[in-house]
Every structure is written in structure tokens, then in C-alpha cells.
Amino acid sequence: MSSDTVGRFPDPHEFQVPSELAGWEEMYPSHQLFSADREEWEKNQFWFQDKIHAPEAIPPLDHIFQEAWQISLSQYTTRVFCIPPAQGIAQRMVGCYLYICAIAPPPDEVQGAKAERFGARVFPVFQNYDALWEKWLVKFKALGEEMDNLKIPNELPEFIPEEEVLPVPKGCYVSYDLMEGFDKLVNMMFKGWQYHFEMLNLSYLAYLMFTDVARNLFPGISESSIGKMVAGANVAMFRPEEELCQLARLAHSQNGVADILKGEGSANEKIDQLGELAEGKSWLEQFHNAKEPWFYVSCGSGWYHHEGSWVTNLEIPLGYIKGYLEQLDNGETIERSLEKIEKDRDEIIAEYRGLIKTDEDKKTFDDTYNNIRSIYRYAEDHLFWVEHWFHTIWYAKIREIGAVLVKMNMLDNIDDIFMFNRYEIPELLTETSTGWALGVDIPMRSAHYKATVDKRRKILDAATEWNAQPALGIPPEEVAEPFTVMLWGITTDRVQGWLKGVDAASGDEISEISGFASSAGVVEGPARVLKRLKEIVDIQPGEILVCASTNPSWAPIFTKIKGAVTDIGGLTSHAAIVCREYGIPSVTGTGIATTTIKTGDRVRVDGDTGEVTLL
Could you tell me if residue 451 is inside a domain? Predict the structure, then answer.
């Protein structure tokens, strides 16, 4: 590494991607690219790779979620709840990966104007959270059901059916319905993400406020101790795994059922075999009852169409059930120990509260603690309904449109539609509808669209093999934006740790990395480095999971692993929360774990200090 690049990351305007990625820029909207007309502003920002929302290279249509959250997250901070020092999170794409930056605080006069509104808008949410959550869930379910019920034409027929012409012409036909259907899906997705952040930023803010109070009252208190204080929650995101545990215990009490589920064969073969047994039929009834809505959970993160969901890939939930049955055969516990987590939480709260000397300080502690305990659940409750349930419905509806394009020979495969972004698909649908409307023997540019699909798939494959830089630009002297710290886990020390990783590319050896002490405990074991979600099936009992970021949908593997280390994620990240809820030692936000540690390396994870040591 040359002397002029030590201590900094690559310039985003000069940074080169591998030649195999040539043309990647065409896959994303131009406003998401670094550009000459914004160069001065962009050069003054610090950009880091968002491995929470985009751990892999992003297919063009899957990018819609990123656009949607940028608007929603930022507006709730800047315009709705008016958090005084906070601005929004800006996004840019580089080589199929998402980079983001926290914008610097606004001028003092703007902060003052926001402060006048902040208290009146924020604290009523804390005080009335339970009622607000119920209202939120009703309207969000209604939106998802509206999307699910949206009728997409299944074909562009040779002739319009008689009943749509006589006695009165319908007026609008399938050519319009197809185009309108996609437009409605896009609008509903953006609306869903508007709902997504309705209270999420405030849940992070409540954690931050409680953390500040705890650190002021108890100087030197560890991050893991604060994490213990808020752990233990019954939330929707863990319900799918709880359903599988119940199904496993039911099957374990019925030998014939358990034998089939532990046997070889596909999911469909096992279901057919179970249908031949009386007890099997009863078990299948419970299995099918659990599907709606709890199998609408992604096999990965929910951010990518190729991950699939349990409801579309029954091999996954049945595979988890098989693993649970084997654990039960060995006398092991398969559920998370919520009672123990709650007991530990109550004990540590009582211990620290007993150290507070004044009534005023006790009230401050109690108020901020009650706030975080009430709204903390939103972080994992909303996650199931948005990124999993809602996205599963979206993918299914988009595939209905893709099926029409395949029938019209515009694409070869249904999932090829995901190779076009949300701005390009209207053109594709317009050309398809136009060609159909013009009559027969009308040439269309199907070869162009198919070639585009082929080119973009090759680019995405190449991007998957590329280890993109964790950050771009000149690192700030201090990282202070609260959500950047609490959610993404980006701090001044973390950035310096990333720079060590950059410098290590020149030969410096690293034996220890640090991050957030997100979940207490110390463990040692062999590392399993997971760089692609599909590799999750390779995880073996007793391993230390090392990945960009974990997701609560991976809950069934958390009874297998001994500890977890992530590249990104702060104390309120999903990775931190799920590890605390399962009592697994964890260090998050290391920045360089997946590029420093290799599968098979023996590592020590100290969830009390935030240190990870290569042994």
C-alpha cells in the first residue's frame, strides 16, 4: 500500500471495479451512482458498505427496497419526528454493492426548529406504543392483503373474451391491466416501506437514550450489560422458529411421523408418506395451519428474490424440523431459553438500579428503561411483517408478471424479470403490450431483453466473487450520528479497525479484531465464514458463525452455533438482538471479520469485551 493511500479508503470517484463488472452502472438508476455534478459533496462524505440491507450484489429489481428505505428512514428522522442533530442516510451503488453515508448534522438554527417539535412528537409514541402497534399491524396487514389480491393477467390472449366486449365494452383490457399491475405493485412497495419506519427510528432512539442514561449513572458499564437489560422479548420474528419447535415436539411424540421426517426424500415425498398415516394426517394439518402467515419467512434475509421463502421451499422448514428431531433424540433443548434470559435481565436491572442514590436519578432510569422495554419489540416485530411476509407476497406477484413475459417470448425464464430495475420494466411491459395490440407477426426486441439478462447475470456472478472495499473516501475524525452507531455499528474505532484491514492487504498480519460487545459470554471454536446465504446449510454444531450480518430468520441455526461475529451491526442491529435473545456470545460491527477469518480457523469470541482473537 503506497504512502498516499495509508490511512484512507479509495476515492469513490476514482475507485476501479474489476473488468468483469463492465456495464454494471446500467443496472441501477442514475441518481444512485457517484456523479461529477455532485462530486464536491460526495467527496466530503464517508461511505461504507451496507451489509445489513445489502450483504450481496443487488439484482436490479431487488434494488427497489433500497430506494424505498432511503426515503422513509430519512424523512422520519428529518421531517416527521424531527430528531435535532440527525439527518438522513444517503446511498450510492458501486459495482453492484450499496454504500451509504450518514449526512452531517444541520445548522444550529435548523436543529433549534426541530427541537421545538421533537418532544411533542416523540414521547407520546413511547407512552402509547402498545395501542399504536395494534393500529400499525392492522393497516400493514391490509396493505399486504391488497397486494396479494391484486389481479395480474395470466396471459395476453389471442382475442378478448366475449363477456368483456358485450353487451358493453369493458373499456380497459389486459394490455392496460398488465402495466397498471406493475405500477400498483411499485406504489404498494413504497407505501409498505413508508409504514416500515413509522416507529423504527424511535426504537433505536429509545435504546440510545437508555444507553446514555446507563453510562452516566454507571461509568464503565459494558455494552453487553446494557444489552442484557433489554433482552427477552416475545416478537413476531421468532414465531416461525417457535412454530417449527412445536411441530418437532409433536412429531417426536409420534414415532411414525418422526421416522418419516428424519428419513431421506424430498419434502413432497415426505408429505405424501405422512398423508398415508392417521397421525401423519393430523400432523400435516398442524403443519399447514402454521404456513399462514408464519412460513412467509425468507430462507435468507428477505432482500433478494433468489433466496426463496419457507412457503415456496418446504425443504427448508422440514430440514429444520429434521434437525430438531435429532436434537430431541439426543435429549437436547431446541427452544431458546426465554425464561432464563428474562431472569438474567431482571436480576441485572435490579442490581444496577440498587446502585442509584437519588430519587431523581431513579426516575430518569425508570422512564428511559420503560421507554425502551415498550418500543424495543418493534425492531423485530416489524421485521417479520415487512422484510419477510410482505416481500414474499411481492416476489410472488412480480413472478406472475414474469410468467406473462415468458409466454410472450420476451424473456426465457420467469425470474429474468428481476434483471431489470423498476424504471426499465414499464418500458418492457409497454413494448409487450404494444406488440400484442398491433396484431400478429409483429417484431419485438425480445433478443435485446434476453441479451441484457444474460449480460447482467454474468456481471452479478462476477460481483459475487469480488471482495468490495468496506468503505470509500476519507474517514471522519469522529463518527457521532446516533443511528450509524447503534444500527450499523460504525464508530470512530470501528473505522480505524477497517483501515487496519485495508492496510493488511499489503501484508500486515492481524490476530485480533474488535467490535461491539453485543451479547455476553466467552466461547472458543472453529470458525464458519459465511459469505453467501446459501452456505448456511454448511454450518455444523459447535462452530462460530462469521458473516456480514445475521438475520432473525436464521433462528433455527442458533441452537447449533456457539457464537457469532459480524462485519457490520451495532447494539440495536438484528444481529445483536437475535444473539441476545438466544444467549449466544456475539461481537458485531468488526468490519473485517469475513475477510480476516477463514473457515476452520480457531477463534475466541468475547462478548463481554468485544474482542475476537484468532488462536
Answer: no
Note whether 520 and 228 are within 8 A (CB).
yes
Grid coordinates 424495543 are at which residue?
376
For the chain, give the number of residues.
Answer: 615
The answer as to whether 527 is a domain residue is yes
Q: Per-residue pLDDT tens for 441-452?
A: 999 999 999 999
The mean-pLDDT minimum among 41-45, 52-56, 111-115, 551-555 falls in 551-555
Domain of residue 593, residue span: 510-614
Q: Which residue is listed with cell 400435516?
A: 284
Instruction: State the number of CA atoms in the 13 A half-sphere of 306 facing the CB.
Output: 15
Domain contains 267: yes
* For helices 278-294 and 239-252, angle between their N-to-C axes, nearest 10 degrees: 180
Burial class (CB in 10 A: 0-12, 13-18, 19+), 161: exposed
Helix axes of 223-230 and 574-582: crossing angle, nearest 10 degrees: 70
Q: In this structure, are residues 54 and 89 in contact, taking their beta carbons and an 8 Å threshold?
A: no
Residues facing 565 on adjacent strands: 546, 587
Of 305-309, 468-472, 495-499, minimum mean pLDDT range: 495-499
Residues 54, 59, 64, 70, CA torsion sign? positive
Cβ burial of 440 (10 Å; 0-12, 13-18, 19+) is exposed
Environment class of 590 (CB within 10 Å of its CB; exposed 0-12, middle 13-18, buried 19+):
buried
Nearest to 256 by CA among 274, 282, 275: 274
Looking at the 3D structure of the chain, how many domains does it have?
Answer: 2
Burial of residue 383 (number of CB atoms within 10 Å: 0-12, 13-18, 19+): buried
Select from 274, 297, 329 the last residue of a domain: 329
Q: Which of 329, 352, 376 is the last residue of a domain?
A: 329
- Please state, in angstroms and rounded to a whole number, the distance separating the CA atoms of residues 318 and 297: 14
